[in-house]
Predict the structure of MORN repeat-containing protein 3.
Amino acid sequence: MPIVKYPRATEPLWHEWDRKAQKCGLRHTVYSVNGDQYTGGWLDNLKHGEGIQVWKRAAAIYSGDWKFGKRDGYGSYSILDPVTKEYKKVYTGWWKNDKKCGYGVTFYPGMERYEGEWSGGLRSGWGRMYYRDGSIYEGQWLEDRPGGQGMLRLPNENRYEGGWKDGKKHGPGKFFYLDKGQLFEGIWAADIPKCGILIDFGRVKAPAPTQYPIPKV
């Protein structure tokens, strides 16, 4: 019986190229047509694991964890300083679904800094904010503004302790005028004290006490 040989089916060359183009596992730097570049882990053609992303147009770098193509886990985000030509950190902390989520530290222009919790890219939860003028707010945040209970300490050591809403003093609170040796305790609405009681508080040791003490009722 004669032996019949059938021709072997040849695979199109693009199939081989496509297999080689599939990114999975650790890869060297992959360049995009817009100049961006990524070095790190992949899974099913998505950035996954540890990696470093460089955005050319935004002059920014992210170094940290990725999950299915998005920043997820712990990582730091830096931008290029136009003066020093060096990258400076803007945020270091936790991410989820490509947004700040969990505990992290953000550095703002003018030496301002926030340390605390984030949710969906916004300051939410407990946190401490250092302002340019030397003021410090420590307490609860809601949708990127002070909301809940918190304390604001001013550069002259005067401070407010109490409720906040939409970034303003709201609800029961106390304002300590330590420079004058007085304490105001009352109700606030949209940063304005509506009613309360003003009493002497450490007036003897105050650096700039009032001329006369407040008479007792």
